[in-house]
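Exercise 7. Given the encoded structure of a 168-residue chain, write a plausible sequence.
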């Protein structure tokens, strides 16, 4: 393919360049671009933009560090709340409300659960079964209103339960 192009170029007749070509080349050479060490007109604008971006980032970071305390976002409604089985030292029940100590952190236990049925499967001896995927997320939060500290622990679990189908 390169040979075809070369042959076409060789076959073309030579033409003398126009007089305006010499003038355009001379004008371009006269207006040389600045040398790499020479100051450029856009450098102050670039420095100003970089300084403004750095200032905006530092103000945002300072505002993020300054926001202390419990989140002001509304809490989502849980699917199920873990029942209080027996009062212990870490949980606060309604009967202990009058004995509440402001120095002790508040504990909140929340559990979200879903159960999703799967497709019909056949296991040992062609017994039809439906897998049910049970997923739960248990969240425990400790809130210290005195020191504006909140600590959370989240434990996700997934269990697959096979349910036998009756064959009539």
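Solution.
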């Amino acid at each position: 393919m390169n040979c075809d192009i070369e042959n076409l170029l060789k076959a073309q007749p030579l033409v003398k360049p126009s007089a305006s070509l010499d003038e355009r080349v001379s004008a371009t050479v006269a207006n040389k671009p600045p040398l790499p060490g020479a100051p450029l007109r856009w450098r102050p604008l670039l420095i100003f933009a970089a300084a403004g971006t750095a200032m905006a980032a530092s103000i945002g970071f300072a505002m993020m560090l300054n926001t202390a305390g419990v989140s002001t976002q509304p809490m989502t409604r849980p699917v199920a709340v873990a029942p209080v089985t027996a009062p212990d030292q870490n949980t606060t029940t309604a009967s202990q409300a009058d004995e509440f100590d402001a120095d002790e952190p508040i504990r909140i236990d929340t559990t979200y659960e879903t159960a999703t049925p799967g497709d019909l499967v056949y296991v040992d001896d062609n017994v039809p079964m439906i897998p049910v995927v049970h997923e739960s997320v248990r969240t425990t939060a400790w809130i210290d209103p005195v020191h504006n500290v909140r600590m959370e622990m989240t434990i996700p679990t997934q269990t697959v339960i096979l349910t036998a189908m009756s064959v009539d």
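Remark. The helical segments are 2-11, 19-30, 43-66. Students should compare their own answers with the one above.
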